[in-house]
């Protein structure tokens, strides 16, 4: 009897208290370089966190720590806003069985890896609709450790019967709890560009219905023609750099004038090495051989050039470019790979803007996330290296803070602060 009581008492806190802690910590990070995200850099300063929010950002010696605060001595380290991935596929598999298997066997590991890379917020890219809501619920309830999830409901407009069916599905997924909508591709057959009249009408209906409901609608527009066509239909959130044809300045200016944003995903066309196998052979992010293994294209590898250059053309003509990976492969490798391709055409200072404020804006969270400013949610990455010395230093997360909670802490570990080498 006594023994049973002891076991029950010991087990209780574990079953009642959420893993990640429902009450945010107070925190002080002192003596660190602070990349604010507005263009300002504080070479030595402090970030104070109270009740999960940033309550002060100061220069010089640290102010007094708030009551009960944990203290991180950031000497030699750099603090940057938590990374935001605006479009990533989170659930592997579709349908109840595959989703359950994924949630049971793989999800916890994947979500932790994402946090380890420094990603504290992620928008899903049209996963299994019930699965993504369940994953989000588990993280929000504290059952699972992971980044903040914005769940997209998938509405595959190109494959649907008509506008009425599209409008009905948009309403259903939003009613079920989706934060935004993601379609699959416009047009469905991306190479060559040849949308049918029905799929064009379907996409326009989907964009219109989402607008009525006040949610964002993500479109994969992968050619110059589809980019412009979708913007003319009212799309504001485009995922994927254009990987078919060159985007002209005139097209880029039209996208900018419409107020549309483009989430990067430049790594789609460039090869990675030694992620899927240690054979020194170039591969795509799904493990298929580069360049002939690409989906829906010619297989000549030209996407590796189109994507970064087109993204820079858009950026230089006033388009808000944001950060996204649009993949399922290892989150640390995905970050390394995307940064490698982005850094062909963007400086570290550009990358700070792209990954911070621009990415927060893409998910309509610019008031809460994306920079280290008073009043914002305390999503922070403490890096071992300085990103201004090279993009690989974005890959040196030592401590990751989400909503004021320390969710990753590698201080003292042998690999802490070293860049993630995979996929480079
Ligand atoms: Zn996608």
**Termini separation:** 59 Å
What assembly state would you assign to the polypeptide chains in this entry? single chain
Instruction: Please state the average pLDDT score.
Output: 92
User: β content, as a range?
Assistant: 15-25%
Helices and strands, in order, run as HEEEEEEHHEHEEHEHEHEHEHEHHEEE
What low-confidence regions span 5 or more consecutive residues with pLDDT below 50?
A: 1-21
The CATH class of the largest domain is Alpha Beta
Written description of the protein model:
Strands 1, 2, 3, 4, 5, 15, 16 and 17 form an eight-stranded mixed β-sheet that branches. This protein folds into two domains: 7-81 and 371-409, Urease, subunit C, domain 1, CATH 2.30.40.10; 83-362, TIM Barrel (Alpha-Beta Barrel), CATH 3.20.20. The longest helix is centred in the middle third of the chain and has 17 residues, at 197-213. It has helices at residues 2-16, 96-105, 107-117, 129-141, 163-176, 197-213, 224-232, 249-257, 303-316, 331-342, 348-362; strands at 27-35, 41-50, 53-59, 70-73, 78-81, 83-88, 119-124, 148-150, 152-154, 180-182, 216-220, 237-239, 261-263, 320-322, 380-383, 397-402, 405-409. The protein has eleven helices and 17 strands. By secondary structure, the chain is an alpha/beta fold. Strand 1 and strand 2 form a beta hairpin. The protein binds zinc ion (ZN). Residues 87, 89, 125, 220, 239, 326 line the site of zinc ion.
Keywords:
424 residues, alpha/beta, Urease, subunit C, domain 1, TIM Barrel, 17 strands, globular, binds zinc ion
Quick structural summary:
The protein has helices spanning 2-16, 96-105, 107-117, 129-141, 163-176, 197-213, 224-232, 249-257, 303-316, 331-342, 348-362, and strands spanning 27-35, 41-50, 53-59, 70-73, 78-81, 83-88, 119-124, 148-150, 152-154, 180-182, 216-220, 237-239, 261-263, 320-322, 380-383, 397-402, 405-409. With 424 residues, the chain is an alpha/beta fold.
